[in-house]
Amino acid sequence: MPSKLIGMYNVDYSAVALPEGEGWAAHLTISGPSSNPMHRNIVFPEQRVSPDKAFATEEEAEQDALRVAEGMVNAAHDAPTHN
């Protein structure tokens, strides 16, 4: 499963083959910082993203998962904080 560090978040993204050769689904997991390097702080558990899309190739599905992750991390970073 490919992974990428985006800001302080570790993003694992993958493609999962759909049944009966219907294409590929984009899957994603996002982990936040943890005080223990042996423990992942999952902030977005592994799940399918873009569920209305089936991709023709594994690479297309992986790239979509990464695009979704980047959007989620950027949105979280830009969100106002309430004190």
Q: Can you lay out the helices and strands and say which pair or pack?
A:
Layout: E1 3-6, E2 9-17, E3 24-32, E4 41-49, H1 58-78
Antiparallel strand pairs: 1-2, 2-3, 3-4
Give a brief outline of the structure.
This protein is an alpha+beta fold. It has one helix spanning 58-78; strands at 3-6, 9-17, 24-32, 41-49.
Keywords:
single chain, 83 residues, alpha+beta, Double Stranded RNA Binding Domain, four-stranded antiparallel beta sheet, 1 helix, 4 strands, 25% helix
Average of the residue pLDDT scores: 91
How many strand elements? 4
Q: Roughly how much helix do the residues carry, as a percent range?
A: 25-40%
- First-to-last CA distance: 37 Å
Number of helices: 1
CATH class reads Alpha Beta
Can you name the CATH architecture? Answer: 2-Layer Sandwich
Helix/strand class: alpha+beta
* Beta content: 35-45%
Spatially, the strands of the biggest sheet line up as 1-2-3-4
Written overview of the protein:
The chain has 83 residues and is of the alpha+beta class. It has one helix at 58-78; strands at 3-6, 9-17, 24-32, 41-49. The chain is built from one helix and four strands; from the N terminus they run ββββα. The N and C termini lie far apart (37 Å).
